[in-house]
């Protein structure tokens, strides 16, 4: 029931029709995976001053999927930053993270935030 209500809400909100609502849902799923991959890579790299790069990269990769990916990236990024704010992380850090998130979502090169020396694997 919750899934059908959620899908109906997306359809009404987006004004989507037949094929495009399915594309949106698929893109959102792919974008979610892109965000998870960037988070996993950030944890694996454990590299000083790389946080903003991985924020921008995850949002960039998700946004390349289409409107569903942009939506997923925004929801995930806003939720993550909201939780961190509640846990007492500084407002300045939250603003910097959100700047990197928006940078990536808007299609700008995430390498702008890439720290020197970060392995090319990432």
Q: How would you explain this protein's 3D organization?
A:
Residues 1-18 form the signal peptide. Keywords: Acute phase, HDL, Signal. It holds the Pfam family SAA. One of its GO terms (biological process) is acute-phase response. By secondary structure, the chain is an all-alpha fold. It has helices at residues 2-14, 18-45, 51-63, 67-86, 91-105. Helix 2 runs antiparallel to helix 3 (51-63), helix 2 crosses helix 4 (67-86) and helix 3 (51-63) runs parallel beside helix 5. The longest helix has 28 residues, at 18-45.
What would you say about this model in short?
This protein is an all-alpha fold. It has five helices and no strands.
DSSP summary: helix tally: 5
Separation of the first and last Cα atoms = 40 Å
* Percent helix range: over 70%
Averaging pLDDT over every residue, what do you get? 89
Q: Largest beta sheet, briefly?
A: none
Throw out a few tags for this protein.
single chain; 122 residues; mainly alpha; 5 helices; globular; Synovial_Prolif_Regulator; signal; HDL; Serum amyloid A protein
Fold blueprint:
Layout lengths: L1 H13 L3 H28 L5 H13 L3 H20 L4 H15 L17
